[in-house]
Design goal:
With 541 residues, the protein is an alpha/beta fold. The protein folds into three domains: 2-242, Rossmann fold (3-Layer(aba) Sandwich); 262-298, no CATH class; 324-395 and 461-540, P-loop containing nucleotide triphosphate hydrolases (Rossmann fold, 3-Layer(aba) Sandwich), CATH 3.40.50. It has 17 helices and 18 strands. Helix 7 (195-206) links the parallel strand 6 and strand 7. Helix 12 packs parallel to helix 14 (446-457). The longest helix has 36 residues, at 244-279. The two termini are 44 Å apart.
Length: 541
C-alpha cells in the first residue's frame, strides 16, 4: 500500500534516517517505537506528505486515504457534537469515485501480485462502507462511537466549542473512526482517554478493517492493538513481526545472536593476526601471510550497537510513617453547581499502592490536589497521620517551570532546607549532565520538562507519594525506570494515571472515582477492567 524507499533525512547535524526502507500493507497494525527524538512524528508527517525527505521517496497509490490524529492542537466549534461527528462520514460520491479509480488501477496491475489482492480487499471494504451509509446504520454507528468515546447522550446537542481540550481530541478521534480511511495514524491516542474509554478504543481498533500506525508510550495499548512493530533507532528502521512484547523479546534475541557472531569474529580475527605475526618473517610462507592479510581486509566487521541512554533514579528514603496515612471523612467539594464529591469517605494506610481511575472530569486530579493540600474544599475533614510527609507531583507541574531559569536553578530552588539533597546527582541520573543541566527550561521538550519535575521531587523526602499523571511524555523505557523507582520506594503511593501496563506493575488497590460515588477495590487495573466487563454482562442478564 505504501512503500518507503531509501529515505534519508537530517535534523541539523543529527541523522534521523539513514537510507531507511519499509512497506506498510493494507491490513498492517503497526506500533512505531523509538526513544524520544528518534524521529517518529517526523516519519508520520512524511508518510502524509507534510514533510519532504532529504533523499528517497514515499510511494502511495492515489486510492489510499490517510487519517491522522495528532497529539494535541485540534479544536472545533459551531456545530453540535452529533453534527460534527456526522460530518466525518463524508460524501458518498467521493467514495464511489475512489472505487472507480481503484478499478482502473487494477487493470494496470499484475494479477499475481500481493498489491493486486490488497487492492481487491480494500475495494471490498469501501463497497461495504457504501452499504453502511444507510441512514439507520449511520445514526447507530455515530451514537455507538460517541458513547464509546465517553460522551453522554445529553452531550449530542451541545456545541462542540463547549468541550475542553481533552474532549476536543476525543471528538477528533471519533470523527477519524467514523471516516474509516485506508490508513489511520494515531500519535499518542491514549493521552486524552480514561481507562474505560481506552479499553473501548482498543476493542474497536482490534477489529478495524484498514491499516493502523500507532505511536504510543502505553505498552498495554500497543500489545492489544498491534501485530507488527517498526523501531526507529540510531537512524535505522527495523521491522518486527509482532506486538510490543514480541518486539522486546526479539530485540534481545537478535542482540544475543549479534554478540555471539561478534565474539566468533573477534576470535577469527585474532587467529589470523597471530598467524600473520608468527610467519611475517618466514619467506617460505610469504604467500600464505599475504593471503591472510587480504582475508583480514575483506572481513565485514560486526559492531554491537551502542545502547541509548536510560534514566535512572530512586526516590529518597522515606521518613518513618504511622499506620494511618490519610483519612478523609464526609468530604464535600464543588465548583459552583458542579458537585465533585458529596460525602466522600476514604482511608489510606501505610504501604498502600493505589491507582486512582475514572472517567475524565470525575475528580481524580481534584482529589489528588486536596490530599496534597493544594485545593480547598467546602466541608468534611482530612486527617494526616502524625508522621505523614506528602511529596506531590502535579499533572501541570512540568508546565509550571520558570522559563527564565536553567534546569539546575529550577531543581536547586526545590532543595532549599534540605542539606542532604544533591541536585547535580539527581539531574545526572535523569540524563541532564554537564551543559544539559544549564539549558533554560523554556527550550525543553515535554519529556525533558517531566524529568526536571521528577528531579524536583527528589529534593524533598516524603513517605506518601501522590503522583498525578507522572508518565505524560515519558517513553516506555523511562516509564519502566519510574516503575522500578516506585517499587523500590518503601512508603505509600497514590497514582492518578490511565496507563494500564504502568499501573499493573506497581499498584495493589484501585480507587474508582465516579460522578457521585467512589469505591476502593483490592486488585490491579487489568483485574478492575475485567470486573467492570463482568458487571456489565451481569447487568444485561
Amino acid at each position: 500500500m505504501i512503500t518507503i524507499n531509501q529515505v534519508t533525512h537530517n535534523f541539523g547535524k543529527k541523522t534521523l534516517y539513514n537510507a531507511i526502507n519499509g512497506v506498510i500493507g493494507a491490513h498492517d497494525r503497526i506500533g512505531l517505537v523509538g526513544a524520544n527524538g528518534s524521529g517518529k512524528t517526523t516519519l508520520l508527517r512524511m508518510i502524509m506528505g507534510e514533510v519532504e525527505s532529504d533523499k528517497g521517496t514515499f510511494d502511495k497509490p492515489d486510492y489510499v486515504s490517510i487519517g491522522y490524529l495528532p497529539q494535541d492542537g485540534i479544536e472545533v466549534s459551531g456545530k453540535t457534537l452529533y453534527a460534527e461527528a456526522e460530518s466525518a462520514l463524508g460524501d458518498v460520491l467521493a467514495l464511489q469515485e475512489k472505487i472507480a479509480k481503484a478499478d482502473e488501477a487494477r487493470l494496470e496491475m499484475d494479477t499475481e501480485s500481493e498489491e493486486y489482492y490488497d487492492l481487491i480487499d480494500t475495494v471490498g471494504e469501501w463497497e461495504q462502507k457504501l452499504e453502511d451509509f444507510e441512514p439507520q446504520k449511520m445514526k447507530s454507528r455515530i451514537e455507538r462511537i460517541l458513547l464509546g468515546m465517553g460522551f453522554k447522550q445529553s452531550d449530542f446537542q451541545r456545541d462542540t466549542g463547549e468541550f475542553s481540550g481533552g474532549w476536543q481530541m476525543r471528538i477528533a478521534l471519533a470523527k477519524l473512526l467514523l471516516h474509516s480511511p485506508s490508513l489511520i495514524i494515531l500519535d499518542e491516542p491514549t493521552n486524552h482517554l480514561d481507562i474505560v474509554s481506552q479499553h473501548w478504543v482498543e476493542n474497536y481498533l482490534s477489529h478495524y478493517q484498514g491499516a493502523l500506525i500507532i505511536i504510543s508510550h502505553d505498552r498495554a495499548f500497543l500489545d492489544t492493538v498491534t501485530n507488527r512493530t517498526l523501531e526507529l533507532k540510531l537512524g535505522n528502521l527495523n521491522s518486527f513481526k509482532g506486538n510490543y512484547s514480541f518486539y522486546l523479546k526479539e530485540t534481545e534475541q537478535r542482540l544475543e545472536t549479534l554478540r555471539k557472531a561478534y565474539k566468533n569474529q573477534q576470535r577469527e580475527i585474532s587467529e589470523i593476526k597471530d598467524f600473520i605475526n608468527r610467519f611475517r618473517s618466514n619467506v617460505k610462507k610469504a604467500s600464505m601471510v599475504q593471503s591472510r592479510i587480504k582475508q583480514l581486509e575483506k572481513i565485514d566487521l560486526i559492531t554491537i550497537p551502542r545502547d541509548e541512554k536510560k534514566i535512572f533514579f530512586r526516590f529518597p528514603s522515606p521518613p518513618p510513617a504511622s499506620s494511618k496515612v490519610i483519612t478523609i471523612t464526609n468530604l464535600h467539594k464543588a465548583y459552583g453547581d458542579n458537585v465533585i464529591f458529596n460525602g466522600l469517605d476514604l482511608r489510606i494506610d501505610k504501604g498502600d499502592r493505589i491507582a486512582v481511575v475514572g472517567v475524565n472530569g470525575a475528580g481524580k486530579s481534584t482529589l489528588a490536589r486536596i490530599m496534597a493540600d493544594c485545593e480547598p474544599y467546602q466541608d468534611g475533614t482530612i486527617e494526616k497521620g502524625l508522621n505523614t510527609v506528602i511529596s506531590y507531583f502535579a499533572q501541570t507541574q512540568a508546565d509550571e517551570l520558570d522559563p527564565a531559569k536553567s534546569v539546575l536553578d529550577e531543581v536547586e530552588s526545590a532543595a532549599i532546607d534540605n542539606a542532604e539533597a544533591n541536585p547535580r546527582a539527581a539531574l545526572g541520573a535523569l540524563l541532564f549532565s554537564g551543559d544539559e543541566a544549564l539549558k533554560k527550561t523554556a527550550v525543553l521538550s515535554g519529556g525533558e520538562k517531566n524529568r526536571v519535575a521528577l528531579a524536583k521531587m527528589l529534593m524533598k523526602p516524603g513517605n506518601c507519594l501522590i503522583l498525578d499523571e507522572p508518565t505524560n511524555h515519558l517513553d516506555i523505557k523511562s516509564k519502566e525506570v519510574l516503575q522500578d523507582a516506585i517499587n523500590a520506594f518503601e512508603g505509600t503511593v497514590i497514582l492518578v494515571s490511565h496507563d494500564r501496563a504502568f499501573l499493573d506493575g506497581v499498584v495493589n488497590k484501585v480507587l474508582e472515582v465516579s460522578p457521585g460515588s467512589t469505591r476502593l477495590l483490592t486488585c490491579n487495573v487489568s483485574e478492575y477492567i475485567a470486573r467492570l466487563e463482568q458487571e456489565m454482562e451481569d447487568a444485561k442478564s
